[in-house]
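User: We ran a pulldown and think these components assemble together. Before we commit to crystallization trials, I'd like a predicted model of the whole complex to look at. Sequences follow.
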Amino acid sequence: MTTVPEPRRLLRLGRGGGRGRGRAGVELSGREAFALLIPAMLPIVVLSVAPLVRGIYLGFTDSRAGFGVKTSFIGVDNFQRLIHDNLFVNSFKIGLIWAGSVTFIQFCLALGLALLLSQPLRFRWLARSLALVPWAMPPVVVGIMWKLVFQPQAGVLNELLYRAHLPGSNIDWLGDFTWALPAVILVGVWAGMPQTTVALLAGVQSIQDELHEAAAVDGAGTLRRFWTITLPQLRPVIVAITTLDLIWNFNSFGLIYVLTLGGPGHSTELPMLFAYNEAFKYGEFGYAAALGDAMVVVIACILVFNLYGRLKETTR
Amino acid sequence: MIVSSRPKRARTFQYTALLLYMLFLAFPLLWLLSVSFKGPRELVELHPHLIPREVTLSNYTDALHGDIGIGDVTLLHAAWNSTKVAILTSLLTTFVGLPAAYVLARTRGLLSRLGLGWILLSQMFPLILIIIPIFLLLRTLHLTDSHTGLIFVYVVWTLPFILWMLQSYVRGIPRDLEEAAMVDGASRITVLRTVIAPLLAPGIVVTALFAFITAWNEFFLALVLLQTPSLTTLPLLLARFVGVEGIVRLGPLAASALLATLPSLLLFTIIQRWLTRGLLSGAVKG
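Assistant: Here's a predicted model for the assembly, 602 residues in total across the polymer chains.
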């Protein structure tokens, strides 16, 4: 990380490249660009790139918390231990169920909302502002808020069920083995609505009106235009935002920490909670890092899968 | 865009859907608000009402007068910690990110492509992988249980997003302006200071406020790095309060949660129009 290749080579000089006369001074020279990048690059390399590399490596060691503990390379031992660790397998299963369902439900809801918000409806400013609120809230507060909603006796959810004479009005949603996961998924959907809605809304608004008008002239109905114009035109945005959502959700931590701490009985223990406990409760740094490595593999699979789909689409 | 052949029925459907969305989005917020204004007796009632029968401010006075603290740490103390950390993070990130964002926006060499790639990549890997080595590094420097260490980590952690925002704002400034100034003989630094900076000012403000909100709301890194109670930030205090006794004392919990959200919500309201515009210019082809 200390040897830096000659900057001039790294920065292929911009389009000017000494063509016209007044041009050469306008483009950033390699040295200038390098000097401007340094203040940001230094902390990123020291506190982000290097730790990432070291973190990946730690997964292959027996590193433990505590001063002066010797760390040695142990190959794939951690990973063999992981495979036989039921709690680990469980946390990944829950992580995938959580990330998959939150992303899917969120996508459907956000797409509907984005389509509505692109219509000239009254009160759409209110809906738009409401949809953005979760973005501004600390995940901890979102967790606390929904904890109040889910309260078994004093919560609004059970009261609503009771008044509507629906079953389930005495369920302790977050303390129940069957219902805890669906309950936190609902919270995940609520908390992630803003980003998805904003991205999809921007996508919807960038579709040219002429396309819809032309199709309407040709006699295509609402539903048909949605399938043949809106969805295909949105495809790049959809791929990008669902990929990001999947990864963000798979990595999420704060919400669940406040809502259930992974309980009851590990039934909502996402990979990050499991890793946090291993690292900072039991001091198993090496093991937790190995878990992080495994998460990277899953995330890489999500990426490759989605990018492959995208590639196929563009080459067709 | 969806123009129905039967407009009236379509409109009714659309308004119903919009109403349902608003209910889903708003009802947890309204409930939080309602709980925060209820007295202790009404809070334990078996069949709660959305509108408190007796509105009381006692939860807020409890929250503000140190009754929810962990040890000696009060809500106001934690708020002061959060303010300090968030302001310094915001200033540092913006300051460090600005020159780099300019390069990312204006050159297309290997370095800036690497930079943009890193911005994307940093959104994806699990935090656990970098927090353990950072923890080890900060421990060697005796910075783990300190605001300085936390701010360092926050700066790096917010940088990718900040760089992304800033560079999209820079892209919005026409190159011709710079070229004209340079042809007139101005140096690069002068151009950056007198041409770019003033035009970029609104973008810089929005970005700095966004960095503030991000640091204000952050929980995981603070949880890992801070141990001393007197250093506690707001999200940390609230999470501990839930763990210790929050579930018994719903009223003060709701009030403090609301108070803790107020600053970021206010700032977010101010910047949201520019925020969504800045984030998505370039991300979605128009």
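Residues 7-58 of chain A form one domain. That may be worth checking against your pulldown data before setting up trials.

User: Thanks, that helps.
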